[in-house]
Amino acid sequence: MLITMIETDKLENTEIILKSISYLESRGFTNIKADATDCEIPKSYIRKSTGAKITPDIVAMKNGRKYFFEISLKSDKPKLLKSKWLFLDTLSRMNSNRFRIITTKGHFKFTADMLDDINLSNKTPIKI
């Protein structure tokens, strides 16, 4: 089982990933890896309990700290997305890293509802 952006979503939303990368670069992030065509792909993690392979959408460094970024777009499979976000949030807290959600116009309500559903309402999505 592979938990990443669904292939059709990925094709439609490569532009959003590239905008996000530009946004992060302008904010001082370096060593950016993204699950997009022009970039190095971030390290994948395998969940021991299910064997699921999880790859963050974007990984970047700033001030010596690793940040995991997820692009939040409306999805047909919100359960998989929630599972991925919870895993990345837990992983980032274990290693003193940071986990952030990036979203765009038309997806704010979906993102807020998802974060509330999994008790991550303390996360404020980055709006691009």
Structure in words:
This protein has a single domain, classed as Trna Endonuclease, Chain: A, domain 1, CATH 3.40.1350. The protein is globular, with a radius of gyration of 14 Å. The protein has three helices and eight strands; from the N terminus they run βαβββββαβαβ. It has 128 residues and is of the alpha/beta class. Residues 1-6 have low confidence and may be disordered. This is Type I restriction enzyme R protein N terminus (HSDR_N).
Fill in the keyword field for this structure.
single chain, 128 residues, alpha/beta, Trna Endonuclease, Chain: A, domain 1, five-stranded mixed β-sheet, three-stranded mixed β-sheet, 3 helices, 8 strands, 37% helix, 25% strand, globular, disordered N terminus, Type I restriction enzyme R protein N terminus (HSDR_N)
